[in-house]
UniProtKB/TrEMBL annotation:
It comes from the Bacteria. The lineage of its organism: Bacteria, Pseudomonadati, Planctomycetota, Candidatus Uabimicrobiia, Candidatus Uabimicrobiales. This is Sigma-54-dependent Fis family transcriptional regulator. It comes from Uabimicrobium amorphum. Keywords: ATP-binding, Nucleotide-binding, Phosphoprotein, Transcription, Transcription regulation. SUPFAM superfamilies: CheY-like, Homeodomain-like, P-loop containing nucleoside triphosphate hydrolases. PROSITE patterns: RESPONSE_REGULATORY (PS50110), SIGMA54_INTERACT_1 (PS00675), SIGMA54_INTERACT_3 (PS00688), SIGMA54_INTERACT_4 (PS50045). The modification 4-aspartylphosphate is found at D55. It holds the Pfam family HTH_8. CDD domains: AAA.
């Protein structure tokens, strides 16, 4: 029995029956049939089709035109197509071969010939996909994502598994673990890589503006809408839209996003026209989204739609063996010409540190060390003070300890006090971006005294 499914497009129902019988005889169970061409894209959208048998002369559209329509759509361009030609159609079939059709057969088709050709086309297509996936793995390994531990290798494999299809991906992990990098790697390794990659931080855009930023608006749709605006969905058409910090998407906007994912169309504010969009969605968060779903703070149906395929990023302290590699990578980045190195003691300090801000904190620490250092070798004292002061943990009494959340809040308050509420400096010490700090302040309801740092840029 074969798992693959085949679509037959032929205007002659008797002929469809005959082809179906040959295919069933060869063990294919999933067989779809169309007598006209116009429904082909809907059939491909709703079913997983592995191969198409296409009659070259159809009543409503020519086989060649239909072939081009399928191949132009990158979601289906990988599907092998075998033309079935009537007497006298051979010239057109040769034309189709030049365009890239897998092969053509003349009526009456010989069962054995058809079965062999189909097997050959399916094997070839599987091989092509495997090669594409290996290329992706190689690309991911070589360029963007650095690391050799099993934990990060698993992430690379997950990226390779999902990149070539269009599934929605949810990237989870603490701040600074590389979620944006993974989203970019998925895009770069996908068939959409030549189209736009648009990243939006849902927490950084005021909620009142988010709807028009995402879906666009018509001129005059609301006060201040002086001209028509294309939203992020349309700007990302045919590419990938990365919605970072998705848990910041206001509850009232969540049904709208759900609708876009289901219907694949958007309605700009102030318009009554629906516009088809072809966008792959990747989302990320460092919050516990499952908890938010259980508390009713994030819609369950939307979460299920977004979480079709998830990638979990480990915190850096759980993959310490990658720290030297990453540290060296950032050292090369910040001292490309001087070719600095680490002293043994400096490297040991880097490895021993817990990196609460993960790879971003490591990145900043190495940049800091390169600026401070005045020799070819980075010394322990060139590293930020947080690394120097690391002492071994005292024995703990678990009954009187704070929860992780309480600790985080206390630590944030301490750092803010230390920097006299200068958020830029505080974010640097914490190894996070200023906007992440801002989100944390909002979440923990920490307020900044009004008269502190009046000149700090917002
Ligand atoms: N495996 C990696 N190899 C090389 N660089 C990495 C890796 N992971 C992360 N980085 C670098 O670390 C920094 C932080 O990564 P990124 O912005 O992707 O994290 P994030 O999880 O999206 O953070 P946040 O939750 O704050 O948005 C970036 O400079 C990124 O290039």
């Amino acid at each position: 029995m074969s798992k693959e499914s085949i679509l037959i497009i032929d205007d002659n129902e008797l002929y469809i029956d005959a082809l179906e019988a040959i295919l069933r005889d060869d063990g294919y169970e999933e067989i779809f049939a169309l007598t006209k061409g116009h429904n082909v894209l809907a059939t491909l959208e709703n079913n997983k089709i592995d191969l198409i048998l296409l009659d070259i002369s159809l009543p409503d559209v020519s086989g060649i035109e239909l072939y081009s329509r399928i191949k132009e759509n990158k979601l289906y361009s990988h599907i092998p197509i075998i033309f079935i030609t009537g007497h006298g159609d051979v010239k057109i079939a040769v034309e189709a071969m030049k365009l890239g059709a897998f092969y053509f057969l003349s009526k009456p088709v010989q069962p054995y010939e058809l079965q062999t050709l189909i097997r050959c086309a399916l094997d070839n297509s599987k091989l092509q996909r495997e090669i594409a996936s290996l290329k992706v793995q190689l690309q991911t390994n070589q360029s963007l994502i650095i690391g050799k531990t099993p934990a990060i290798k698993k992430v690379m494999t997950r990226i390779a598994q999902v990149a070539h299809c269009d599934a929605t991906v949810f990237v989870k992990g603490e701040s600074g673990t590389g979620k944006s990098l993974v989203a970019k790697a998925i895009h770069e390794s996908s068939l959409r890589s030549k189209h736009p990659f648009i990243a939006i931080d849902c927490g950084a855009i005021p909620s009142s503006l988010l709807e028009s930023e995402l879906f666009g608006h018509e001129k005059g749709a609301f006060t201040g809408a002086v001209r028509k605006k294309k939203g992020f969905f349309l700007r990302a058409h045919q590419g990938t839209l990365f919605l970072d910090e998705i848990t910041n998407l206001p509850l009232e906007l969540q049904p709208k996003l759900l609708r876009v994912i289901q219907e694949r169309e958007i309605t700009p504010i102030g318009s009554d026209k629906e516009i088809k969009v072809d966008v792959r969605i990747v989302t990320a968060t460092n919050d516990n989204i499952e908890e938010m779903v259980n508390e009713g703070k994030f819609r369950r149906d939307l979460y299920y739609r977004l979480n079709v395929f998830s990638i979990d990023l480990p915190p850096l302290h759980q993959r310490r063996e990658d720290i030297p590699l990453l540290a060296q990578h950032f050292l090369n980045k910040y001292s490309p010409n001087t070719k600095k190195s680490f002293s043994k003691e400096a490297m040991q300090t880097i490895i021993n540190y817990d990196w609460p801000g993960n790879i971003r904190e490591l990145d900043h620490a190495i940049e800091h060390a390169v600026i401070i250092s005045n020799s070819k070798e980075i010394q322990k004292q060139d590293l930020p003070s947080a690394l120097q002061s690391k002492t071994s943990s005292p024995s703990l009494n678990f009954d009187s300890l704070y929860t992780l959340k309480e600790m985080e809040k206390k630590y944030l308050e301490k750092v803010l006090m230390h920097t006299s509420y200068n958020q830029t400096q505080a974010a640097k010490i914490l190894g996070i971006e200023r906007k992440s700090l801002w989100r944390k302040l909002k979440r923990f309801e920490i307020s900044i005294p009004q008269n502190e740092n009046p000149n700090e840029a917002k």
